[in-house]
Amino acid sequence: MLLPDARAAIVATCQELSRAGLVVGTAGNVSVREGDLVAVTPSGVRYAELAPDLTPELVGVHRLDGAAVEAPLAPTSEMPLHLAIYTARPEVGAVVHTHSPAATALSTLVDEVPAVHYYMAMFGGPVRVAPYATYGTDELARNAVQALHERTACLMGNHGAVTVGPDLVTAHDKCMYLEWLCDVYLRASSAGTPRLLPPAEIAAVAEKLASYGQQPPVA
Ligand SMILES: [Zn+2]
Q1: Are 79 and 40 in contact (CB under 8 A)?
Q2: Which among 125, 6, 121, 130 is positioned nearest to 62, based on CA atoms?
Q3: Each residue of 154-185: pLDDT tens digit?
Q4: What is the pTM of this model?
Q5: What are the phi and psi torsion angles at 13 (to 5°)?
Q6: Pair type for strands 29-34 and 94-98
Q7: Distance between Cα 216 and ligand 1 center (Å)
Q8: Catalytic residue status for 49
Q9: Using one digit for the tens of pLDDT, what is the confidence trace for 99-138?
Q10: Residue 136 C-alpha to ligand 1 middle, in angstroms?
Q11: Catalytic pick among 34, 49, 70, 78
Q12: What's the Cα-to-Cα distance from 210 to each of 12, 47, 205, 207, rounded to whole Å?
């Protein structure tokens, strides 16, 4: 089996996302790139831990042009999104896409995630919201790649969230932090008008994080 570790890690990540309530049913998809191969979740398989339909064998391996190399099922309908990100961003080794509740709700309200917390800096700056386009289209993939410019996360308008990282653990962690950040904004804005941090502060924290090797801030 090609890329056995990546495929097993994808299954574990999907189950974790499901446990955390960040994916529902078959929504959301995860991929890992190794060299010129991409392991990606198949279309329409449930991720729930109690119904573990997804196995490493069912995670398909494709080339960067989308051609199947070892894939028993059709890939996720968002395959164009994953491939466009890997093509545009050689440093990216993993992509996580979810319809997590807070990120999806906020994607209907704003063009950029408001900087209510310094955790925003871990994404490289303010997280943009890509304009809506129909799921699975090249247009949506283009919009997301543009919104991800110099960032490790974006929202897709009226759709969900995308996070990227050099590896799957990092992309998954960023997915959790992004959902938390969106949730904090929604809670704060439902109770009043949140104070926002100025762009200079987000930039300063981003610099500080970079000097700590991109570790998530724990303070
Ligand atoms: Zn989606």
Answers
A1: yes
A2: 6
A3: 999 999 999 999 999 999 999 999 999 999 99
A4: 0.93
A5: -65, -40
A6: antiparallel
A7: 26
A8: no
A9: 999 999 999 999 999 999 999 999 999 999 999 999 999 9
A10: 8
A11: 78
A12: 28, 34, 9, 5
